[in-house]
Amino acid sequence: MIAGLQSGKGIDVTAILSSYDRAVGFVGGTAMQSLALLFTRVVLAGIFWRSARTKVEEGSWFSISDTTYFLFAEEYAGVPLPSDFAAVMATVSEHLFPILLVLGLFTRFSALALLGMTMVIQIFVYPEAWWSVHAVWAALALMLILRGGGQLSLDAALLKARGAA
Description:
By secondary structure, this protein is an all-alpha fold. The protein is built from eight helices and no strands. The chain has one domain.
């Protein structure tokens, strides 16, 4: 059947498969993977950075708001940590780890930390939000944990500088 299609009597399957193989080779290359990992780092960082900025006083760099302390004492009370400590840790983490992700510095560790935060939020705060929100966050974090920051990261530059690349 395929031989008949290749002889001009229909669709040239070999040409289609060849084109497909070239496209896969292009998007599977190091450059495209590094761009995809950069995009993944920026997206995950953006999610947590925006959340971090809602936890501080408007116009301040890092003054945790009274509203944040209230939310951790009341709405997020299911988190098994003292509420003041949880508020500070969440605020610090949501500022620090996104910065590290954008830089591609300690990418795997930062993604693991944000995955941990995601799971705490999922289990103790918003258990109904798995499919609508947290599964996507977890998938982004897992991709970075498994693949690292890619070639467009400080991790890659440090690895190269150490001669391990």
